[in-house]
Design goal:
- The structure is a single chain.
- The chain is of the alpha+beta class and 79 residues long.
- The protein has a single domain, classed as Alpha-Beta Plaits, CATH 3.30.70.
- 10% of the residues lie in helices and 18% in strands.
- It has a three-stranded antiparallel sheet, covered by helices on one side.
């Protein structure tokens, strides 16, 4: 069975989420250093990259302990 990968972009960066890899640590949306305006499991879609700067999103993604969240800069992605 192929792993599901979902992507969300703000035009500058693309967030990549691999649901099966997620350990549900809640670091992306819970706590004083969370980024709930971007990562909110109560919303659909649950990732809204337009709600924060790319720099802030990258900072938050780097805290993901499972590696379920990653990113790339769109200008670096070759099709």
């Amino acid at each position: 069975m192929e792993e599901i990968t979902k992507t969300y972009t703000n035009g500058e960066i693309t967030i990549v989420w691999k649901p099966k890899t997620c350990s549900h640590s809640t670091k992306c949306w819970r706590g004083h250093e969370s980024l709930v305006e971007v990562f909110n499991p109560k919303d659909r879609p649950w990732i809204k990259p337009e709600n924060a700067s790319s720099e802030r999103i990258v900072e938050q993604i780097k805290k993901c302990p499972s590696g379920a969240l990653s990113f790339y800069y769109n200008e670096d992605k070759t099709v």
